[in-house]
């Protein structure tokens, strides 16, 4: 199957791609600031909420920058290199899923024992 995001990235020029990345990053930073501001407004409980929001958005920002880096690399290389790296990442996720399913029943049985 083809990914609509990657297909549109291939047809973009370098200027269009960098402009889109800049726009996405700006929107992301605004969302992050809003979430942190909202967490701060919670008073004493806000400290934990601020740390949680910062941690969440640090991971999301890392993912966004990695996606932007891959899209830029894919545009420069003609699309072949970025697609193969994405496929390898999907395989790792599929391999981990059965392990997670096996761990869940043991956790449930441990919770049922008083």
Automatic annotation (TrEMBL):
Cite the record's Basic and acidic residues compositional bias ranges: 82-97
Give start-end positions of Basic residues composition bias: 39-48
Q: Where is this region: Disordered?
A: 32-51, 70-114
Q: Where is the composition biased (Polar residues)?
A: 99-114
Name this protein carries in UniProt: Uncharacterized protein
UniProt lineage: Eukaryota, Sar, Stramenopiles, Ochrophyta, Bacillariophyta
């Amino acid at each position: 199957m083809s990914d609509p995001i990657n297909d549109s990235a291939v047809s973009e020029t370098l200027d269009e791609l960098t402009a889109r990345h800049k726009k996405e990053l700006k929107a992301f930073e605004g969302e992050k600031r809003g979430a942190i501001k909202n967490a701060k407004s919670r008073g004493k409980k806000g400290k934990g909420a601020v740390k949680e929001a910062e941690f969440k958005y640090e991971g999301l920002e890392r993912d966004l920058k990695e996606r932007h880096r891959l899209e830029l690399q894919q545009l420069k290389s003609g699309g072949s290199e970025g697609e193969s790296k994405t496929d390898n990442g999907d395989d790792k996720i599929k391999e981990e899923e059965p392990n997670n399913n096996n761990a869940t029943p043991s956790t449930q049985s441990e919770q049922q024992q008083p």
